[in-house]
UniProtKB/TrEMBL annotation:
Protein's organism: Alteromonas portus
Cofactor: pyridoxal 5'-phosphate
Primary localization class, coarse: cytoplasm
Name of the featured protein: Alpha-1,4 glucan phosphorylase
Entry's family note: Belongs to the glycogen phosphorylase family.
Role: Allosteric enzyme that catalyzes the rate-limiting step in glycogen catabolism, the phosphorolytic cleavage of glycogen to produce glucose-1-phosphate, and plays a central role in maintaining cellular and organismal glucose homeostasis. Phosphorylase is an important allosteric enzyme in carbohydrate metabolism. Enzymes from different sources differ in their regulatory mechanisms and in their natural substrates. However, all known phosphorylases share catalytic and structural properties.
E.C. number(s) listed in UniProt: 2.4.1.1
PROSITE patterns on file: PHOSPHORYLASE
SUPFAM superfamilies the record matches: UDP-Glycosyltransferase/glycogen phosphorylase
UniProt entry keywords in alphabetical sequence: Allosteric enzyme, Carbohydrate metabolism, Cytoplasm, Glycosyltransferase, Pyridoxal phosphate, Transferase
Localisation: Cytoplasm
Length: 825
């Protein structure tokens, strides 16, 4: 029980006086201001600069150690990295958070205020991008040689405003006033070719040589963001590429007097990294998106090869020993033909040798089974932008088809099914197939998802390549998602079980034996209450809604998508409201439903659901008959830094996707880790969370995957539920009136239409009654204060499995085969 015995908190590298001096120095010498003039923004920048001194020292030592040891490294290719804010994280990881807080206090500044100055680095949409951020945190913490490669978007995910209930998108400008963390590396600029044509030549002994004459060249400028591991030993980098017009290319145009054309060329080149596509789990099919993907993959591969050649010259035989590349979904799949092109056309290796290298270098993570998210590119689009790559893809496919024929002789249906090329009106290139064929390992992101990848998405590939398809269950970094975001709970845990849980999350098990201890329950729930007070304040400031902190805080935070079923939660809220109107004594514990969600700008129904939540919220929050039993708060602009405030305050975690649709979920892990109890379906990682916490400490409801499939096969008809269940009927009909949108009947009708006329594709009505009953069970459980506290504690205690350190350990053992590298000072 004594914390001192196991103290492994990072020990501060500098003391308060030194930190204070560093902040003042940067205020004067970096920012050109002083203590009297500085506003919070300046204090924030000076504090960042002070800690960045330590960060860069760690970075230099890490790079030197990796170089001297000629380490094998993983290269995490991802179109998205949702980093959030870095100051608090970096301070925590160096063990300098309290030191900095104390130093700033002496300067008359509150650290909590200056942390709020930092814009989120929102270079991602949701789960997939945040997973990448958690993974690079774990890689650095575990002292593994790793580099993240992505795109330096000028505008990250849009800022969401809510006007009269509706979502409005505003540009995100995270670097408008400079980003204190990033370092530009002009010495590592790369050039990327686009468009043009392929010339076929014949070399010695009849060898066919292909030469790509590009129509356009753009420059990739790398910006490095240091990634600090816990305890600050390894500092890896996230290298993000920004596009610029190539000087070389513009020179001719400019000389020819085409100044205006030269400018136009500029704009086009710079467009590539201008903005993050805001679509989550839908493939965009846009030319610019493909160019973005190729741009960052090409820059990254050339960067890797430059580094490899520095150590190994032209000897390619060791390339696959030194380099492993993880493809985060198919977004970077164009890397496969790009590496083939470099090896075959430039290095002049034979095809088989090149393919042998490729298929030892790449591994691919699948994140979804949703058909609309599986990327396919029109062959003609690839041909236009990357003519040589299309040839290479055809060659890969040609050889692959021979393999298929060997396994299933003469089976043309099988060939059509597995081919990289989908024949049809328009020939399409299936990036998922290319990724499976070009990788040595393919993983899903939770047990159940990986099982479905094998059994329904890629069953034949599983037969053809036994053992290639595997599972790595997702995880989250406990440094950000408990230690930094929930200091109250962290300190309580430190006191109870010692301080080394942030790097060994299984240690949280030690809390389980206190789960029924009344004193500990009180302490645990006191922290929860304090966190709820902070969130209540946030809700008041942002929405002018008063909420009761003794109410159940019921939280649903994630992208807005039909399969995630925010509208199922909404229907239940409306049903509760109706029950209260019918019976003023309707017995329920007060509840605050808190939502956070962005909708893709082009996703009409998702935006309608946001509008409906806000309209229903308006009505309920202002109806005195509700007597404060229900409040609904939709917090605008959900993002990492807002999640950090919402998660510690949650009593209930909503994970209610249609079974089989949510690959894993990671918010489910963050909420449970912070002592929220899950209400959820048997989907994604919920299944594994239930296994860990036990059936008594989670509320599982609804159809299973098998039941969903069976119901679909037998012809699901939502009208059956509509006519059979009077509450469902009443609630859906209510949407058609102008009750929630006075003077505008029908403003919410699209939701009803999707659930009836459009066949309710995500089976909201089929699960409604089970969900509503499960919510009644949650209500009853909450009223038993001690029982609830016990459940909450067990949830925190049993989350050890879901640290991203465990995910990374799984990747290292099953896929990457990496060893840690000690950093010499
Ligand atoms: C999956 F396919 N995910 C995609 C995508 O385009 N974007 C995205 O964020 C998510 C899954 O939906 C997930 O289940 C999963 O946990 C996450 O990828 C990381 O694997 C919930 O966000």
């Amino acid at each position: 029980m004594n914390a001192k015995a196991t103290k492994t908190q990072p020990s501060p590298v500098i003391d308060k006086a030194a930190f204070k001096a560093a902040v003042i120095k940067h205020l004067h010498c970096t920012l050109g201001t002083d203590e009297n003039k500085a506003n919070n923004h300046a204090w924030w920048k000076a504090t960042c600069a002070a800690i960045q001194e330590q960060v860069l020292e760690g970075l230099r030592k890490t790079q030197k150690s990796h170089y001297l040891n000629d380490t094998r490294a993983v290269h995490y290719f991802s179109a998205e990295f949702l980093m959030g804010r870095l100051l608090s994280n970096n301070l925590q990881n160096f063990g300098l958070f309290d030191v900095a807080g104390g130093a700033l206090k002496e300067l008359g500044v509150e650290i909590s205020d200056i942390l709020e100055e930092e814009p989120d680095m929102a270079l991602g949409n949701g789960g997939l991008g945040r997973l990448a951020a958690c993974f690079i945190d774990s890689l650095a913490t575990m002292e593994l040689p790793a580099i993240g490669y992505g795109i330096h978007y000028e505008h990250g995910l849009f800022r969401q405003e809510i006007k009269s209930g509706a979502q409005i998108e505003r540009p995100d400008s995270w670097r408008d006033y400079g980003n204190p963390w990033e370092i530009c590396r002009p010495e590592s600029i790369q050039e990327v070719s686009l468009y043009g044509y392929v010339e076929t030549k014949y070399g010695e002994n009849g060898r066919v040589l292909k030469e790509w004459h590009p129509g356009s060249i753009v420059k990739g400028v790398p910006w490095d963001i240091p990634v600090v591991g816990y305890e600050g030993k390894t500092v890896n980098v996230l290298r993000l590429w920004q596009s610029e017009a190539s000087d070389y290319f513009n020179w001719d145009v400019f000389n020819a007097g085409g100044y205006v054309d030269a400018q136009r060329e500029n704009v086009q080149a710079e467009t590539i990294s201008k903005v993050l596509y805001p679509n989550d789990e839908t493939e965009a099919g846009k030319e610019l998106r493909l160019i973005q993907q190729y741009f960052f993959c090409s820059c990254s591969l050339k960067d890797i090869i430059r580094r490899y050649k520095r150590a190994h010259g032209d000897d390619w035989s060791r390339f696959a020993d030194q380099v492993v590349i993880q493809l985060n979904d198919t977004h970077p799949a164009i890397s496969i033909p790009e590496l083939m092109r470099i090896l075959v056309d430039r290095a002049e290796l034979g095809w088989d040798e090149a393919w042998g290298i490729c298929t030892k270098v790449f591994a691919y993570t699948n994140h979804t089974l949703l058909p609309e998210a599986l990327e396919k590119w029109p062959a003609r689009m690839i041909e236009k932008i990357l003519p040589r790559h299309l040839e290479i893809i055809y060659e890969i496919n040609h050889r692959f088809m021979a393999e298929v024929d060997k396994k299933w002789p003469g089976d043309n249906a099988m060939k059509a099914k597995l081919s990289i090329i989908e024949e049809g009106n328009e020939k399409m290139v299936r990036m998922g197939h290319l990724s499976v064929i070009g990788s040595f390992a393919v993983n899903g992101v939770a047990e159940m998802h990986s099982r479905l990848v094998k059994s329904s998405l890629f069953p034949e590939f599983d037969e053809l390549y036994p053992g290639k398809l595997t599972n790595v269950t997702n995880g989250i970094t406990p440094r950000r998602w408990l230690k930094a975001c929930n200091p109250g709970l962290s300190k309580l845990i430190d006191k109870k079980i010692g301080e080394d849980w942030p790097r060994d999350l299984d240690k949280l098990q030690g809390l389980a034996k206190f789960a029924s201890n009344k004193t500990f329950q009180k302490q645990f729930m006191k922290v929860k209450l304090e966190n709820k007070e902070l969130l209540a304040e946030e809700i008041r400031k942002s929405l002018d809604i008063e909420v009761d902190v003794n109410a159940i805080f019921d939280v649903q935070i994630k992208r807005l998508h039909e399969y995630k079923r925010q509208h199922l939660a909404l229907l239940n809220i409306m049903a509760l409201y109706r029950r209260i109107l019918e019976n003023p004594d309707y017995d329920m514990h007060p509840r605050v439903f808190v939502f956070g969600a962005k909708a893709a700008p082009g996703y009409k129904l998702a935006k309608d659901i946001i509008f409906a939540i806000n309209k229903v919220a308006d009505k309920i929050n202002n109806d005195p008959r509700v007597n404060n039993k229900i409040k609904v708060a939709f917090l605008p602009n959900y993002r990492v830094s807002l999640a950090e405030k919402m998660i510690p305050a949650a009593d209930v975690s909503e994970q209610i996707s249609t079974a089989g649709k949510e690959a894993s979920g990671t918010g489910n892990m963050k909420l449970a880790l912070n002592g929220a109890v899950t209400i959820g379906t048997l989907d994604g990682a919920n299944v594994e969370i239930a296994e860990e916490v036990g059936d008594d400490n989670i509320f599982i409801f609804g159809l299973t995957v098998e039941e969903v499939n069976e119901l679909k096969a037998n012809g699901y008809n939502p009208h059956d539920y509509y006519y059979k269940d009077p509450e469902i009927k009443a609630v859906l009909d209510w949407l058609e009136t102008d009750y929630f949108t006075p003077g505008k009947p029908g403003a919410l009708v699209s939701i009803k239409q999707s659930l009836l006329d459009n066949g309710d594709p995500y089976m909201v009505l089929a699960d409604f009654r089970a969900y509503s009953d499960a919510q009644i069970a949650v209500d009853a459980a909450y009223r038993d204060k001690e029982r609830w506290a016990e459940m909450a504690i067990i949830n925190t205690a049993k989350m050890g499995k879901f640290t991203s350190d465990r995910s990374i350990r799984d990747y290292v053992e099953r896929v990457w085969k990496l060893s840690p590298c000690k950093i010499e000072s």
